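Possible regression after last week's pipeline update?

I re-ran a chain I had predicted before the update to compare outputs. Posting the input and the new output here so someone can diff against the archived version. Not blocking, just want to make sure nothing changed silently.
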Amino acid sequence: MVRLKDLPIYEQEHLLSKLLPPLGPLPWVINNKSLNKKKIAIITTAGLNYRNEENFNFVDASFRAIPTETESKNLLMTHSSVNFDRTGFQEDLNIVFPIDRFKELEDEGFIGSLASINYSFMGAGLLPDAYEKSVRSLAKILKQDDVDAVFILPVCPNCSRSVCGISYYLESEGIQTTGITLVREIAESMKPPRLLWVSFPLGRPLGKPNDEKFQKKVIRQSLELLIKQKGPILDDCLLELDDKNSIPPPACPISFNKHTDDNSWYGRLNSEVSSMMTWYDLSLKRRNRTTVGASKSTIMRIVKGLTAWIDDPETLAPKDMAWLKFALEDLKAFYGESLTAQPGNYNAGYVDNIIFHETVLGELITYYFEFFESDPETQPFARTIASREQVKRSTGSWAINKKGEMTKLKDNDKD
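New output (post-update):
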């Protein structure tokens, strides 16, 4: 996350709408074990779940258990927010769930041990107190596993607020917490026990995919907050990304020719997807994993399903919004993996910029966004389809509170 002052006004206003006071008096746990004796668990708010288990819902305070020995190819990201970059996760699971980095820190003796089970929440769409019941339940499990402390990290704008809430409830249950915030102002206002602010892009809380040394330096600085005696603590990360000397990515391997014999939505999208199949296959070989799969449908079925209604408006509008949302995410993942099939340095936003400005998929996402946003009842769903960066304005500040009620945080927020 770049500094707030460097962001577009609509993004600044959206993030500032998320500022909340502390959830209560500061809970502060002192655990006098040294770091090299502590048992640490990882909690991510990236919305990770197994391919064969239930996806996260649009607003979902539950958690998923992820054993330490899980292979990255078995995990999907079913986070409902579209306002962060997912290509870091496509390249390296550790950027959002640093399981390998913690194993290495255990082997090096920096921490005592990594918990055998770690956890994922989904940090979008909920006010922090909506997590209370789930987090207090998780605290009991962590205690049974003799966990001394947890390391929590976010991916999206709302995730930084969720991290503050999760930290508060775990600490109030007697478990030490530390972690990452991507939005400094949110942590300043909510005052969780211990967090490290990083200036990295949304979706990349540990900065650089596949850079073991960089990621571990960030993690170490955050874990060292556990030995502090007084709080709240909000430290600035000592590392920043050096974009000035970054190597440009390989040339885009795909030419998006929008002229086809079949100018229907199906014809245009099918032609575009077909042109990427070779590169997608190359990505599979290089990474030995894909992040496509949330919709449980093949790519070609997705193409047909997403275009059938808009090619024939006389048919009923789509009713299965969950499938539609995850089908769009699967297509974006397919495009992202194809566009980055060649090894190289791909900065956050590279894939989204191409999708939004050069592809039929970008047009399709805009079409669906405008359709759902035009109806007050489906406006909240529209913001799970297109990002603020894509539409260049706010897409609303709805959230679900502890009672399960939808609230709009800013009455003057443009719909």
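Follow-up from reviewer: compared with the archived run. The chain has a mean pLDDT of 92. Marking as no regression found.
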